[in-house]
## 1
Amino acid sequence: MEYWIYIAALTAAGTLTGILVGAIPGLSATMAVAILVSLTYGWDVTTALAVIMGIYQGAVFGGSITACLINIPGAPSSVITTLDGYPMAKRGEGGAAIGWACTESFIGGLIGVLALWIGTPLIARVAVGFAPQDYFLLAVFGILLVGSFAEGSFGKAMFTASLGVVLGLIGLDLITGMPRLAFGSDILVKGVDLVTAILGLFGLSEVLFQLYQNSSAHIIQKVGRLFPPMNQLIRCLPLTLRTSAIGILIGALPGVGGPIASTLAYDHAKRTVREPSRPFGEGAYEGVVASESANNAAIGGAIIPMLTLGIPGDAVTAVIIGAFQIHGLRPGPMLMTETPHLFNLIVVSLLLATFFFLIFGFLLIKPFIKLVSIPQNILLPPIIFVTVIGAYAINSSMLDVAWMSFFGLLGFVFKLYKFPIPPMVLGLVLGPLIDETFRRTMISYHGNPIDILGAIVASPISLSVVALMGVTFFLMLRKPRNSKA
């Protein structure tokens, strides 16, 4: 009993730390876990894993706090949460927005942990069955979903997504290691950091846009009832279960992770919810439900290939593999056989962290609400300061600050001319994945289009993704021109 109390205390400390780190723009779960791993050389492996799992769960939820309140996602997986969470805050419903995010993160995280515990062997077999062409089709499908973010113009959404793809390809080639789109510049060789881009596109651009509007007014946030009404929670439960399942399946695909899971879940919500509480993009609860349940469920999914195959499901689990190696462990099929107690520890720690961030989340809502209720002329300068510091902290480089400034100005121009920003982030995430998987497909089948087509036809996974693409495209064509959904 004392052992599990000790584990619970460590997990609670890690969860609280993760929430605070996730809520600070520029600081991510990956960064927090990486720093912690470097400190665990002298720690017992159970101590290290308990704290790491707490930070992981807490940071993913923490990113939704600033996403809802100030339109700056604390993590890439929270980008989609801004679409409806921030409009809720602009209506004065910041407390309700975080309440929904916290509750849905809890449900999604709980489902993800249960899937990790019960369905690890099954989901691992599905994930290992993905061939390069399957990943390529999935990434292309993700780009096709930019129609979900089109603010009245699919063309504008596709333009920003395409620009994101091009910018995401800048830097070293993932396969050959040669510079690409660098034009002989040492600066461009380093590529574009995703977190830096997010800080500029969502943080600095929002500040510039508020200054451009020259509005000194501020919205008084209503704390009110923090926990979502039970009738609305029950009404959204079927959607929560579906989007959590999407998060688990996408999270279990190596290298994909929360951003794509939340994107697919949000698109699913727009396609299936006939009568949302409000139009999507204008503060619909269902938008927050889809994003937050999916990106937290993806945590359990991402750990599955890490434990069973030794392949990271996302950036954080890649760092966690380093923690295993530091302590002389090798994630993979033998880990489950040789050290089953570590699997139980991970499941219990994640389960505890899920309950802890529900408690801490609701306790921290009022302090955060008071923070964003400060008038803009007082609030905006600290936001600029935190954004700059967050960009600099990524690599301790002024180059990242310059990139952040560039994306901030670009995002400001997009806002002026009503170009949607989330598709660009989607392009930055999917661009390298599309490039790598396309070339791996070409290498695997020696560039023979007949062989590639045959592999797609012979693969149930490929056919399923192609069918989803066809249905999505058909629904886009049928979408009424005056629809805001």
## 2
Amino acid sequence: MASGCLAKVVCSDAKHNFLVHYLLALAVILASPLLFSIRYLDSKQAAQPLEMLVPLIGIILLTPVFMPEQNESIRDVVRSKKTSYSLICLLRLLMAMAVLLSLIGAFVLYMRHCGSAVTFRHFTGSAASAAVLGAVGLFGAAVSDDTITGYMSAVIYFITNFLLKDKLGIFYIFSMSSGSFAEKKWLVLMSVILTAGTFTVRSIRN
């Protein structure tokens, strides 16, 4: 019964607070074929839209996890509930990740249908880049207690990758376009560390 009630709370929360973010992420995916050719690409060419545009949905979906509670009235209501606030935020994050993986997976399958040489590594590589961008935004939002700052942090990291390129080493998010997948495991690790740090910061603050 408790799990059923929790599911209703989370679904209602997603509908009223995050539906616009889900739709915006979908819009990015739908716009990708308009900005990049996705037909009959080799492995390196196929990596370009999957690294340079699709990962932006990580910023859109993951950064605003704590956004509703920036309103003090909502924050007080949430804290008055018996359900753990951290648990609600964790479930929000899991839902955002589920949407992220579903959208990237659908786009990779569509590219494959269009004759491009995409593999499961392209899916995981794109997801890793999206996750690390979202984790940077999420951490920035948690530390500053401001979602806008979180967005700015993630965008700055994204732009830095364009400017410094592979000088970022293991933190370079466009490595697939150069034919290297080794950096992706480090991006996943960085995402996990930043996310854990995010919840630690919020727990201390609350």
## 3
Amino acid sequence: MAPARILVFLAAAALAVGACSAAAATIPPSASPAGPSGLPDQSAPPSQAPTGAGLILRATLEGGFIAPSAVRTRLPIVSVYADGRIMSQGLTPAIYPGPLVPSIVLRSVGSTGAAGILKAAADAGLTGADGSYGPAPAPDAAATVITVIHDGKQTVSTFSSLQPSQVQPGSGVTDERVLTATGQLLARLMSNDSFGGTAGPDGTYTPLGFQLFVTPGAPELSDPNLARPPVSWPLATPLASFGKVDTLGTNGARVGVVVGPDATTIGPILASATQITPFLSGGTQWTIVVKPLLPDEVAALGG
């Protein structure tokens, strides 16, 4: 296992197994009506099972003590697609300022490996019927939520803990095997396990779309000497009218998505920016926070 992969595995596995970090914003695996942020409405019922390169498994963290605005920018622990692509959030470099766009680690096990992942999920008890395992999590702790799309059905399993030893007697958990098998599945997904498929090279996913949270004013700086020159906003729609009003942001904040040709235009600019890079639009400097969109999220938006 390559050193970078080990680091990613340790970071994500700790999140999944401990279930004690912040929630990840999730998006249904196929198209649904748009919500207030411009992304598909998460309250919409699940659609028909995806085909081709559609989503087949996603693990996220939900709940926990975290600001609502921060929840929306968190990425899933891991996402798996029918063509065998496995995507997970990369480590954030321990530098300041960090990159504006979070990195997403990509590897592939092919369609045969994807079938092996679905079999492992079914063997773990993550298909068939929705389920909740363990007692209700503490108010400041997150639950691990695993969504599997298999044989035309979406199954959602929620875990307050993936460690059987932490499940108290009388909590209602009758099959600790599910907890153990699910923890093992996540660990395999975050390693270099090919699940019987053909392992492809590791790499970094290049987003095909972005969700942007924009706020009037330049980014706050911990050191004025690190100030960056403003970057001109490249799209035709000015930031003052971009997307929709961000009800969770400060006065004048906006939230919206960029897909298609606009994403192609803005992608390299966002990739070269840092967390303290100001953007200039309409004579005003703006702060931008970026959540890269995963393939199923872009597809749901028609991108």
## 4
Amino acid sequence: MPLDPTAPVFDAVDARLVAALQHDARATWGQLASAAGVSESTAMRRVQRLRESGNLLIIGVPDPLRADLGQPVLVHLRTQPGQTVAVAEAVAGRTDVRFVAIVSGRSDVICELIVRDRAHLSRILLADLAEHGAIVSSRTSMVLKTFKTRDEWSQELLPGTADRPRGPVVPTEKPPRIDHLDMALIAALGQDGRRSFVDLSGDLGLSETAVSRRLNALLASRQLSFATLVNPVLLGFGLEAFLHLRVELSDLESVALALAGRPEIRYVSATAGYSDVICEAVFRDNDALYDFLTRHVGMLKGVRHVEVDTELTTIKRVFRHPLFVPAERAGTETP
């Protein structure tokens, strides 16, 4: 994502606080202060300032497949010259679209739909998108399994994080069904991932203990996770990219798990379509991308082909559109 010239430049303390929040979005102020080497009041004041400015988002993010909210579908669009931004903005305006980015590569726009069923998907692909005369072609990939949705690319900014255990990948067992109270909890945390149990208790009409128990259950089943979102450029990471991998199907699981274990990777899914595995990654620069492709991806057994799309700008993420703007002006949608 390019740097807005009006956006503030994060200093070293800001960067360490963001990295600590990406490691644990609901860490206590004491834990954040310790990680950043500042007082609790300084940590609280700086995080609050970054959040109010719109440059830092801390939210709960449900897994649509495991939470039974819909089927994620990745759609790659080619557009008429000069029409890419208009198409991306039009697609981002849909309430069933969770993510939109303008990229360079085989595609011009990558978006993620959350659809109810095949009829919903058919209507989008065959009717709604066809209304945009600027769309030249499209490719569609069905998300079969999501292995990771977690930002860890900033962890090198915190001393001692290399050996910290990372969050588990999606468990293999079938998740429990969520009820209306779970959905209300997910919706509340989708607006603010650091809301206290006291606040959540008042909204849901449950005791703090009951709220804590439900949240822990959602996290353990990986039906919900937390995201700490920031423009990577503000922390010195200037390159975001999508990697599309064709792999031997017998090695798909091991490849996806290996990628999910890398801090550069923020998202990994197995897909049915053009690619077998798709992942989104954050790097400092082109040299870091080259090193990752040659030293890590190139060493994975079963990888037959890799295609890279560089993200030029992210229009929408986790239903936030616009993305990094002051809270009072941010548009949000809930799946």
